[in-house]
Design brief:
single chain; 504 residues; alpha/beta; Rossmann fold; GMP Synthetase, Chain A, domain 3; 3 domains; 8-stranded mixed β-sheet; 5-stranded parallel β-sheet; 20 strands; 23% strand; binds xanthosine-5'-monophosphate
Length: 504
């Protein structure tokens, strides 16, 4: 499948979102650095993203205008992209008197294709400081904001610029604007999960041949879809599931059952004693993480033996992040997906990443189309180090048992009451210091349990969820009455930032 739309990335935090929106509208889009434009083939359209720079900066990122013109495809410049096009066509910009961030109203000036079906006065979302001073010859203004400044230009046939962000939901008719632009292409929408699945399956078969593919499974969405996909491709697979002793109540059995349901046989390695023995007495959070991370690699790779091919569930955002930014998130991901052993295998051409073109919601759709159970697809994120990050301080088997019981009550109640699917991630944590309580007329020192439920888009920020009091009361009563060793239940009402999602 050829990429239909190249989104040239000028560094906006929303660049990935443009790609997602275009795919949602059925066109296969990918993000590229502006420099790669001359190497791209068989495109149907080009979108220039927004970005933090000003076109008048000395080192402002550029576009190869000769190549862009020679391609003669429909072009959409968004924000910085529009300003860049304006400059290239010979127009001028001036720094805005005030930076414009947030909502504005769209005043449509010209009935062009770009604003077909878009409401006059509909809300648009701005995030820029430069404005257009003079128009290039032949260009016309398609829309303004309520202050009369141009927010959309047409440079020539099928070449448009918009100063607002159509990709964010705060631009109420943004989707329609993108759709109108896409209708200028001379190709039809080709991107859907079914077509993509067939393509990935074919690629897997070709790449794998008769080699055996080793992959790790955790029960999470990405590794589950990956293993099922390999299984559907009909190649030889060895899916390894490491029980690190830090999993939730019945998790091993549930993950096994989940795979059985889709006909995939997984190889469970019980390494729980090795992990828990190694963690004994350690209370430093980073040392705990290191012990678990290293032990996992040890157990996994020694169990896998000689690897012919190793598959991992790297997703498109991970690929973009590692390639285009030095953000904290990318460092974390790099740590997980690019550890030394994997780097060695990569150098030998032995790493397969069949999901690396897909976003998370597309991976879910792919899983759904292959019969992966909904409960697996909608599972909350669960950290690699498992319950270790929910057991701050020293980890003991006793504390883990208490935590498992409390977490099971929390999760099962959320599932039963329909709240689980409204929550992005729910966590139960056992706090390290005991607190006083009264049990059977005597003072008893027992553990406090903290419950946390958040909504988030990408884990970088999070807000706590207002679970109704009666449900919280039910959970608290069940934990206090049913879990030995707990005499206090807390509900965490901290946003991220400043708090993180996990306690450790
Ligand atoms: P924080 O606690 O940093 O968590 O707000 C953000 C997201 O990342 C998960 N998390 C981890 N995942 N290894 C992982 O694989 C880790 O060490 C780790 N720490 C946090 C967390 O559950 C949340 O989804």
């Amino acid at each position: 499948m050829d990429v239909q739309i190249a989104v040239l990335d000028y560094g906006s935090q929303y660049s990935q979102l443009i790609v997602r929106r275009v795919r949602e509208l059925g066109y296969y889009a990918k993000l590229y650095s502006p420099e790669s434009l001359p190497t791209l083939k068989n495109l149907s359209g080009i979108i220039l993203s927004g970005g933090p720079s000003s076109v008048s900066d000395a080192d402002a990122p550029d576009v190869n205008f000769e190549v862009l013109q020679a391609l003669n495809l429909p072009v959409l410049g968004v924000c910085y992209g529009m300003q860049l096009l304006n400059q290239k066509f010979g127009g001028n910009l001036k720094p805005g008197t005030t930076s414009e961030y947030g909502p504005a109203k769209l005043r449509i000036q010209d009935d062009s294709t770009l604003f077909n079906g878009v409401e006059e006065n509909s809300q648009i979302w701005m995030s820029h400081s430069d404005t257009v001073a003079t128009l290039p010859e032949g260009a016309k203004i398609l829309a303004r904001n309520e202050e009369g400044q141009p927010v959309s230009l047409q440079f020539k046939e099928n070449w448009f610029g918009i100063q607002f962000h159509p990709e964010v939901t705060h631009s109420h008719d943004g989707r329609q604007v993108l759709k109108n632009y896409l209708q200028c292409l001379d190709t039809e929408p080709e991107f859907d999960v079914e077509a993509f699945k067939q393509e990935i399956l074919k690629e897997i078969v070709e790449e794998v041949g008769d080699r055996e593919v080793v992959c790790g499974v955790s029960g999470g969405v990405d590794s589950t879809v990956l293993a099922v996909l390999l299984h559907k491709a009909g190649v030889k697979i060895h899916p390894i599931f490491v029980d690190n002793g830090l999993l939730r109540k019945n998790e091993v059995e549930e993950v096994q059952a989940q795979f059985k349901e889709v006909g995939v046989e997984i190889d469970t390695v019980d390494a729980s004693d090795r992990f828990l023995d190694a963690l004994e007495g350690e209370s430093d959070p980073e040392k705990k993480r290191k012990i678990i991370g290293n032990m996992f690699l040890d157990v996994f790779f020694s169990h896998a033996g000689d690897i012919q091919l190793f598959a991992q569930g790297t997703l498109y955002p991970d690929v973009i992040e590692s390639a285009t930014s030095g953000s904290k998130a990318s460092v974390i991901k790099t740590h997980h997906n690019r550890v030394n052993r994997v780097m060695e295998l990569k150098a030998e051409g032995k790493v397969l990443e069949p999901l690396s073109e897909l976003f998370k919601d597309e991976v879910r759709a792919l899983g759904r189309s292959m019969g992966v159970p909904e409960r697996a697809l909608n599972r909350h994120p669960f950290p690699g180090p498992g319950l270790a990050v929910r057991c701050p301080g020293m980890i003991t088997r006793e504390k883990l048992d208490i935590l498992r019981e409390a977490d099971d009550i929390f999760t099962s109640t959320l599932l039963r009451t329909g709240w689980y699917d409204k929550i992005w991630q729910a966590c139960t944590t056992i706090l390290p210091s005991k607190s006083v309580g009264v049990k059977g007329d005597v003072r008893a020192y027992e553990f406090p349990i903290s419950l946390r439920a958040v909504i988030s888009e990408d884990a970088m920020t999070a807000d706590w969820v207002e679970i109704p009091y009666p449900i919280l009361r039910e959970i608290s009563n069940k934990i206090l009455n049913g879990v030995k060793g707990v005499n206090r239940v807390l509900f965490d009402i901290s946003t991220k930032p400043p708090a993180s999602i996990e306690w450790e």
